[in-house]
Specification:
4-stranded antiparallel beta sheet; copper; 34% strand; 4 strands; alpha+beta; HMA_Cu_ion-bd; Copper chaperone CopZ; Alpha-Beta Plaits; single chain
Length: 68
């Protein structure tokens, strides 16, 4: 199990938080995803053999947010 924190730009409300968390949690291998709106981050716990950080970034960017 590994953990990564992604810096996500463009989130401003509870809906944004839910959207990003939902997109990440749908990925196979993601065990948890927690967004901190104040810090503009998404902390993800995942199985390294199943999902990559690039796949996580892509899932967030598909929702209209920027991962920096």
């Amino acid at each position: 199990m590994a953990t990564v924190t992604l810096k996500v730009e463009g989130m401003s409300c509870g809906h944004c938080k839910s959207t990003v968390e939902g997109a990440l949690k749908k990925l196979p291998g993601v065990k948890s995803a927690v967004v901190d709106l104040g810090a503009k981050t998404a902390t993800v716990t995942y199985e390294e053999e199943t999902v990559s950080v690039d796949q996580m970034k892509e899932a967030v960017e598909e929702q209209g947010y920027d991962v920096v």
